[in-house]
Amino acid sequence: MAAPFLLTTELDDIGIVTLNKAHKRNALDEEAIAEIDAYFSNVPEHIRVILMKAQGDHFCAGLDLKEHHDKARSAVDFLRVCQGWHRAFDKIQHGGIPVIACLQGAVVGGGLELASAAHVRVADKSTFFALPEGTRGIFTGGGATVRTAKIISANRMVELMLTGRVLDAHEGERLGLAHYVCNTDANPKSAYELGLELAQRIAGNAVLSNYAIVSSISRIGDMAATEGLFTEGLMAAVVQTGRDVQERLGEFVNKKAHKVRPTS
Ligand code: 1HE
Q: Which atom number of ligand 1 is nearest to the Cα of residue 66?
């Protein structure tokens, strides 16, 4: 039996998922997407944050081009493949649980689509981003036109796809593809160390706040202003009256809570 594409483990209330096909640069075949879908469809109840990382020098080389070539899929077959990717990645983005992606090496094509579904992206300095589809005679199909374009703008995505330009970690950070770049003089931690640190911090937030942050902000961004404000009010009404709000705000009122301070 083939090794699983996804290795899953836990560190207290943090779920750790590892892309486990380094010899194929973690390229995504149908089985890989099915495993991602299965994990994000049934995240154990005690898991508060998920850390997604990859074995090897590269995060993910995108669509398994060999499988696609060998299967010579019809348009309808590939439409179904895309819908499978959309379903799986939507569970990452809108599953209600914060997902942190630790990136290194290639984050290209479908690999960038996968990373774009995560909420926080922590990149090793070796990371590079590209959408080589245009140069391979194909097109994005795993959500980049929606998610990646929203991060970097449709304008920039068109240019990246037409030219096949490769962005390094710092260029990616400037465009929002990475929130942090690690393994540098300024930030010597590894992407995994920082990712885990952020995961632990985020796991300390109220569950409902995290839910609202990861499931409502991007959806509200798709709404007209009137509906957006209405939805924000509803979401806040639920979150602000949650069970542990009194306790957390009481800590502030009683001067026991941390203050917001600039980092040095
Ligand atoms: C693959 C894939 C893949 C590697 N599908 N097998 N994605 C791309 O256009 C990126 C294609 N890959 C590359 O450009 C390079 O492989 C990397 C820059 C990612 C890594 O380079 P390197 O030198 O470390 O590795 P390698 O020698 O190129 O690859 C090692 C093996 O992984 C090799 O197989 P082997 O049997 O010869 O050992 C490669 O064939 C295999 N491999 N990438 C299949 N992508 C829903 S639509 C989404 C559309 C897209 O994602 S298009 C973008 C596709």
A: 44
